[in-house]
Specification:
Blueprint lengths: L15 E5 L2 E7 L11 E5 L3 H14 L13 H4 L11 H13 L24 E3 L5 E5 L6 E3 L11 E3 L10 E5 L11 E3 L4 E4 L13 E3 L8 E5 L12 E3 L4 E4 L13 E3 L6 E3 H5 L10 E3 L4 E5 L11 E3 L4 E4 L13 E3 L4 E4 L13 E3 L4 E5 L12 E3 L4 E4 L13 E3 L4 E2 L15 E3 L6 E2 L13 E3 L4 E4 L13 E3 L4 E5 L12 E3 L4 E4 L13 E3 L4 E4 L10 E3 L4 E4 L12 E3 L4 E5 L11 E3 L4 E4 L13 E3 L4 E4 L13 E3 L4 E5 L2 H4 L17 E3 L4 E5 L12 E3 L4 E4 L12 E3 L4 E5 L10 E3 L4 E5 L3 H4 L5 E3 L4 E4 L11 E3 L4 E4 L12 E3 L4 E5 L11 E3 L4 E4 L11 E3 L6 E3 L11 E3 L4 E4 L11 E3 L4 E3 L4 H5 L4 E3 L3 E11 L7 H12 ...
Parallel strand pairs: 5-7, 6-8, 7-9, 8-10, 9-11, 10-12, 11-13, 12-14, 13-15, 15-17, 16-18, 17-19, 18-20, 19-21, 20-22, 21-23, 22-24, 23-25, 24-26, 25-27, 26-28, 27-29, 29-31, 30-32, 31-33, 32-34, 33-35, 34-36, 35-37, 36-38, 37-39, 38-40, 39-41, 40-42, 41-43, 42-44, 43-45, 44-46, 45-47, 46-48, ...
Antiparallel strand pairs: 1-2, 2-3, 4-5, 72-74, 72-75, 73-75, 76-77, 77-78, 78-80, 79-80, 81-82, 82-83, 84-85
Helix pairs in contact: 11-14, 11-17, 14-16, 16-20, 18-20
Length: 1444
């Protein structure tokens, strides 16, 4: 590509003559014209050299308006016509010149004047110029039909100008062969090989051409065969003015010295294969003062756009089709001379700056195919010369700015594929010169303004893929120059205006995917230039008019057009026609003469008669679809002549007779569908009345991949079908085929449908070897035996229903992609192990088999239909958690007994659990929607005392029993009231589900509290919400029949639970069906329950069976809701889930093979090294730290209630893991884990305050308490003993309250000793486990000392003044005051602790009943200020950091 620079001569196209005396000078312009008004002089004829000089000087006066690049004097001996003898010294050059003619086929040149004249001087040859001495110095043979390799011209030692450029519209050169390496040994300063056909690489010594100013080897055809790197020596060519490499295959260029070429005005390296960061290659800025043209487009450059702000003469800036990133280059707005900018097809982002309005000379701006965004600036009318604006394929938003409608010189306005909104303004009428208006693929809306039709110069109007509405005006007829009109994919309504009669140039019309109605516009019949008509997916009706024979593509499918199809008989040039899904009727017209037809779809109409005739070998038809019509008769024989046929669909007609053998031999059958699957072959003849056998010649259809012959009357076997080597999809369902299924080994089947035939025998083993099987349908046959296992493929659909298949269902174990499964009506037996991995499973029908158990269905969120009726399934209803789409489930006629996992499934509309008897209780959905009934198989009774508000005299016992049964979802006969009585007591109130039955439930207890003091054991300790006084209460003793289920491995201590008080919805996703726990082996037991080692989903787990009561059940669920959301940590035992009643309440965690730390210490105490102890203590601290940090999740605490060595487990590699976090409950355990009955926790590991004030009753173990317990755990690890093991529990409590601490082992290192002393003291201050972990992670105690010494600054907010005890509230009870003063004395008055000085503030928050006997301190804050000595010891530093 070249652009004008400077004219050489100002001479018009006519021959010029200049007279001087008796001599006439004749000037003939050459063919090559850099500017149409500036031809070059090619030949001058004069009488003498003197006269020539004078005449030439006179000629120069004609050309005074031009700038001369060079002037070449012409020697007398070689331009005078009378000179006919060649001087001997020029004979060598003559041979070289003649080689041009011989090598480049001179006889066929466009102009070879004098080349055939043997007496003429070579200086008179067309295209040859000589210097004053007669040496050839210029060769200009451009556009002259030169063909062949370029000869060696290095013998022309004076040659400086070589122009063999190649292509113009009607004249070309075809110079080929290797690029001439001799060229570097010449004196050339001008080389023009534009549009060459050279191959190979450039010579490495290209830099030897030090005088080179013009180097043009660009290729406009983009097919240049030069490749490799551009020699780095080209950087020596500092005199370069014109440098063009475009269209070649060069992949590397050195640009480091580009700024040295100060005379360069043209630089074009576009359309090559260069890569790299252009800025890194050149530098931050390009400084070329004469540069006018800069082209680097269509390469692989990246980084910021090249900065040419200092190229003040820049006119053209082209950097399109690269990977440049960044924003719009602001520097161009300060370059006022730029005419054209093209930076399209890059990775540029951001908005277009409003400063672009400064570019007053800009006439073309191309920014398309980038990621520019934001609203377009409203400045476009400030660039008066702008005529092309291409902004398509970006992310621009907002409306089309008003200034665009005032940019009156616009000819091209392309805004398509953006996110523009709003409507087209009526001001578009100002754009009188507009030729291309493309706004397709935006979000534009509204009606089209009539003013649009005032743009009568429009050639292309593209409005498709928007949200336009309304009718199209008849004003459309004013756009008589239109060639392309696209209105598709909008919501236009009304008739298509019949406005095309005068559009003589219209080639394309697209009105598809709208709501147009009425007739097809008949005026299109007169448009003889029409090529493409697309009117599909509308509501057009009526018959089709005849169209011009120029139409090549016609798509009118999915309308309501009717009438016959004879209107197409004149469209003999048609290449594609689709009239499917209309109402055309009558016989088919012949296809004879449609010699260019490639695609023909007449399906889903009402065509009758026989298959259309006229198929010939010349037709390139590859797609023929006549399906879903009413065609009759035998298949048309001439279809077999279609050698290119790739898709044939004659299905859903009324064809009869045998399958034409010729069709099966069309081995070139290839279907290239819209989904882009090349070589996919389809032959569809299904749903007809074809008879006979499947022809044996089908085995020779080597390209056949899809064969559909279903629902015919075919008979015989399948032997030949499976011999087709590339068969992918086979459907022969619904026929009369019999015999056995042949071996499918070696086939590449993806879809196989043999259903509804008479096939028998076993399934061939080759099914298991299929790698790509996606659909397998063998239903309604007589097949027997097992399904081959394992399947190497992973089908999406399996239908084996209505056969006689048997055996296990283990072939399902390896599947994960199933969406449809139907095994009904067979005799399959055994369990289904798992379906959990099949997340896409939608429908399952396994009814009428002998299946014995089902897996969990939890997490199958796509499951809609599940039918397992009429089997032998026992145990529990499968878990339906997260089955969000399930609408139908049928488990009737089985042996199920447990429906407790039948969670509420909101989407369920049909459910059947009938014809089996469940063990009570049932959920409401199971009983009400599913029709389940339950019974009690092992009767046991329990007394329940309930206190409700009311009066015995008005108490309705029958209604009460009915309400209790309804709320508990149990039968009424299980509830019996033993006695009622009225009392007046202090009770704790709270709302419950009983309120819905008008029952004010005050408390529930499993023991009876008599009225008489003599037999009273005190009030029940059950936890209820609030406190009320003196209410009239009915005490009801209720006898409820309980169910005790026997299990082979465990016993359930499941007491009666008021399920109206228990909500486990928040933990439902953690529920694990007990049936999934396999191979349980008991490995331990205690007061907490029994621990089993088991297998769950092929993983070894620990299962701890919990012994709990009613309140503990509710507490457990609350804790589980937190723990299940806790992120995993390597030093915390992984909680995996739990099982729920009526199965035993069990906690499932990871299995730690190293066992309990306490047992490990007892067994290996003397063998445990200090390093091993340290490696155990640090992980424990990290685990506890993780729990503390996790407590911030939705502001809930995750606090360990029982941190002790017995609750630390060890992995196989003896890595410590904290267990039983948040899961310990108030159970009486063995001595080593003794607890109180007041929900305080394990005494031996508790702080004095926790024991004294019982703060754990309300807030659980605080972080301070856990820090104290951690110190005790360190003591256990160091000693290998339990704390206070020989002292009674009560005495332990007294010692701890009085401040007696455990004796720290003498061999404890200073680090652990300091931490143990510190956490002992931090019973009065919150300990940070982050600090503890940091200390334990230090390499040695000295480094810890240094670190702590740097952190001894006490902030102002940490200093507290003593509180005046007299100002404390005085409404405490005697007990409360005693505890308070006892605490103050311990922390402030002890004489033994003279240093450090302790300052404290006490801010108790209490909550008391009116009797003042049940006050609880809910929080206590103590802050300390320690006065440290200048050089504290390591222990003192840690103690100070801890607040001691």
């Amino acid at each position: 590509m070249k652009f004008p620079t400077q004219c050489i001569f100002s001479l018009d196209s006519n021959r010029k003559k200049v007279k001087y005396g008796e001599t006439t000078l004749t000037f003939e312009p050459s063919f090559y014209q850099p500017v149409p008004t500036a031809p070059r002089v090619s030949r001058v004829t004069v009488g003498s050299i003197g006269l020539f000089a004078m005449a030439f000087a006179q000629y120069l006066s004609f050309a005074s308006d031009c700038e001369f690049l060079d002037v070449f004097p012409i020697p007398v001996p070689h331009f005078l016509r009378h000179q006919g003898v060649q001087h001997p010294k020029f004979e060598a050059e003559s041979v070289v010149v003649r080689s041009l003619y011989d090598s480049l086929d001179g006889d066929h040149w466009v102009d070879n004047t004098n080349w055939k004249n043997a007496t003429a001087s070579y200086c008179s040859y067309y295209g040859i110029s000589c210097d004053a001495d007669g040496h050839v110095n210029r060769i200009v043979l451009s556009y002259n039909n030169l063909v062949g390799p370029l000869p060696n011209l290095s013998g022309l030692s004076h040659l400086v100008h070589l122009d063999l450029s190649g292509a113009i519209y009607y004249h070309q050169n075809f110079i080929n062969g290797p690029f001439p390496d001799w060229i570097t040994s010449t004196q050339l300063n001008y080389i023009d090989f534009e549009d060459h056909q050279f191959s190979g690489t450039l010579p490495d010594d290209l830099g030897n051409l030090v005088n080179l100013t013009w180097f043009d080897i660009g290729v406009n055809s983009l097919a240049g065969a030069l490749y490799g790197p551009v020699p780095s020596s080209w950087m020596k060519l500092t005199k370069m003015q014109f440098f063009g490499l475009w269209g070649n295959g060069f992949d590397h260029i050195n640009l480091t010295g580009l700024n040295d070429m100060i005379d360069l005005f043209y630089f074009d390296i576009g359309s090559c294969a260069f890569q790299g960061n252009f800025t890194d290659m050149v530098g931050a800025e390009i400084r070329l003062p004469k540069l006018t043209t800069f082209i680097v487009g269509s390469n692989g450059f990246y980084g910021p756009l090249p900065n040419l702000r200092y190229c003040e003469n820049l006119l053209y800036y082209f950097a399109y089709t690269n990977s440049f990133d960044g924003h719009f280059p602001e520097w161009v707005t300060s370059s006022p001379n730029i005419i054209r900018i093209s930076i399209d097809a890059n990775l540029l982002t951001g908005p277009i700056p409003a400063s672009i309005s400064q570019m007053k000379k800009l006439d073309q701006l191309t920014l398309s195919v980038n990621n520019f965004n934001g609203e377009l600036p409203d400045v476009w009318d400030q660039m008066p010369l702008l005529n092309r604006l291409l902004l398509f394929s970006n992310n621009f938003t907002g409306q089309i700015p008003p200034s665009m409608y005032r940019s009156v010189n616009l000819q091209y306005l392309q805004l398509s594929i953006n996110q523009l909104t709003g409507s087209i303004s009526p001001e578009i009428k100002n754009l009188k010169k507009l030729q291309f208006f493309n706004v397709n693929s935006n979000l534009l809306n509204g009606n089209l303004p009539d003013e649009l039709y005032n743009c009568t110069n429009l050639i292309q109007l593209q409005l498709d893929t928007n949200q336009f509405t309304g009718d199209i005006s008849d004003g459309l007829s004013q756009l008589t120059r239109l060639q392309s009109l696209t209105l598709g994919h909008n919501s236009f309504t009304g008739n298509i205006p019949d406005a095309f009669r005068s559009m003589n140039n219209l080639q394309l019309i697209d009105v598809s995917f709208n709501k147009f109605s009425g007739p097809f516009p008949s005026s299109l019949s007169n448009v003889t230039s029409l090529i493409y008509v697309k009117a599909n997916d509308n509501e057009l009706s009526g018959p089709m008019p005849s169209l011009s024979s120029s139409v090549l593509r016609l798509q009118i499918q999915r309308n309501r057009l009717n009438g016959t199809v004879f209107w197409m008989s004149g469209l003999l040039n048609l290449q594609l026609i689709d009239i499917s899904y209309n109402e055309f009727s009558g016989p088919c017209s012949s296809l004879n003469g449609f010699n260019y037809m490639t695609y023909c779809d007449w399906s889903n109409n009402r065509l009758t008669g026989k298959i259309p005739t006229g198929y010939t070998e010349k037709m390139p038809l590859y797609h023929l679809d006549l399906s879903s019509n009413q065609l009759v008769g035998a298949m048309e024989y001439t279809i077999a002549r279609l050698g290119s046929l790739s898709y044939l669909n004659l299905s859903r007609n009324e064809l009869f007779g045998s399958v034409e053998p010729r069709l099966a031999q069309m081995s070139t059958l290839q279907y290239i569908g819209a989904i882009g699957l090349p070589q996919l072959i389809e032959l569809r003849l299904d749903n007809n009345r074809l008879t006979g056998n499947i022809p044996s010649s089908v085995r020779r259809a080597s390209s056949l991949t899809t064969l559909s012959l279903g629902n015919n009357l075919l008979s015989g076997g399948l032997q030949d079908v499976f011999s087709s080597p590339n068969l992918i999809s086979l459907n022969v369902s619904g026929n009369l085929l019999d015999g056995e299924i042949p071996d499918v080994t070696g086939t590449t089947l993806q879809s196989l449908d043999l259903s509804h035939n008479r096939l028998e025998g076993i399934l061939p083993g080759g099914f298991a070897k299929q790698m790509n099987l996606r659909v397998l349908s063998l239903s309604h046959n007589r097949l027997t035996g097992d399904v081959p296992y394992p399947l190497k493929s992973d089908p999406q659909t399996i239908d084996l229903s209505a056969n006689r298949l048997s055996g296990p269902l283990n072939f399902l174990d390896t599947l994960s992609s199933l969406s449809h499964l139907n095994l009904s009506g067979n005799t399959f037996s055994g369990p289904i192990k798992t379906l959990n991995g099949m997340k896409g499973l939608s429908t399952v029908d396994i009814s009428r088999n002998s299946i014995t158990s089902l897996p969990s269905l939890s997490g199958l969120f796509n499951l809609e239909y599940f039918n397992a009726s009429y089997n032998s399934i026992n145990g529990s209803v499968p878990d339906l958690t997260d089955c969000y789409s399930l609408s139908t489930i049928d488990l009737s006629h089985n042996l199920l007994i447990d429906a407790m996992l039948m969670k509420d499934v909101p989407s369920l509309s049909q459910c059947d659990l009938t014809h089996q008897t469940f063990v009570c209780p049932l959920t409401s959905q199971a009983s009400q929607l599913c029709g389940a009934v339950c019974h009690i198989d092992n009767y046991q009774s329990a007394n329940l005392t309930m206190r409700i508000a009311g009066d015995v005299s008005t108490f309705d016992s029958n209604g009460f029993v009915t309400s209790i049964a309804s709320l508990s979802t149990i039968s009424r006969d299980r509830v019996n009231i033993l006695r009622t009585r009225s009392v007046s007591v202090i009770v704790e109130n709270g709302a419950s589900a009983y309120s819905s039955k008008n029952i004010t439930l005050l408390s529930v207890s499993t023991s009876i509290t008599p009225d008489s003091p003599s037999s009273s054991n005190g009030l029940s300790g059950g936890a209820i919400a609030g406190i009320v006084i003196g209410v009239l209460v009915i005490v009801i003793v209720v006898l409820i029949v309980l169910l005790k289920r026997k299990k082979p491995v465990y016993k359930t201590n499941f007491e009666l639970v008021d399920f109206t008080r228990i909500d486990n919805n928040s933990t439902a996703k953690s529920v694990i069906p007990f049936s999934e726990l396999e191979d349980q082996v008991m490995i331990g037991f205690g007061a907490y329950g029994v621990v089993y080692k088991a297998k769950w989903r092929s993983n070894t787990v620990a299962v701890r069976n919990e012994h709990i009561n009613t309140d503990q059940m509710q507490s457990f669920l609350g804790e589980a809701s937190l723990v299940q959301r806790m992120r995993p940590h390597p030093n915390v035992v992984l909680f995996m889930g739990y099982t729920v009643p009526p199965d035993p309440l069990s906690i499932i965690t990871e299995f730690c093979e190293g066992g309990c730390l306490l047992d490990y210490l007892a067994e290996h105490g003397s063998e445990v090294t200090d390093e091993r102890r340290d490696n155990i203590i640090l992980p424990i601290a990290k685990g506890v730290l993780h729990l503390h940090q996790e407590k911030m999740i939705d502001l809930h605490h995750i606090i360990h209630r029982d941190l002790a060595a017995r609750n630390i487990l060890l992995s196989r590699h003896l890595e410590a893991k904290v267990s039983d976090f948040g899961m310990s409950r108030q159970v009486q355990q063995k001595d080593s884990a003794s607890t109180t009955s007041s929900t305080i926790g394990p005494i031996r590991w508790m702080t004095p305050e926790a024991i004294t004030n019982r703060v754990q009753c309300k807030i659980g173990r605080t972080v301070t308490s856990i820090a104290f317990s951690f110190g005790v755990v360190i003591w256990e690890i160091l000693t290998g003993q339990e704390p206070y093991s020989d002292i009674p529990l009560v005495e332990v409590a007294i010692r701890v309250i009085n401040g007696t601490s455990l004796d720290i082992p003498e061999d404890a290192n200073p680090m652990l000793r300091a931490i143990m002393k510190g956490v002992d003291a931090t019973a009065r201050r919150q300990t940070r486990f982050v600090q503890i972990c940091n200390w334990l992670s230090e390499d040695d105690a000295v480094r810890v000392e240094d670190k702590l010494a740097r952190s001894r600054v006490v902030k102002d907010e940490d200093r507290y003044e003593p509180v005046n005890v007299k100002h404390l509230e005085t409404n405490y009870t005697t007990t409360a005051q005693s505890e308070l003063h006892h605490s103050l004395k311990r922390y402030h008055g002890s004489k033994e602790r003279s240093a450090p000085v302790l300052r404290y503030t006490l801010n108790p928050k209490t909550k008391c009943g009116e009797d003042k006997h049940s006050c609880h301190f809910t929080s206590r804050e103590f802050k300390v200020h320690s006065k440290l000595s200048p050089n504290p010891s390591p222990i003192a530093r840690i103690q100070s950091d801890l607040g001691f």
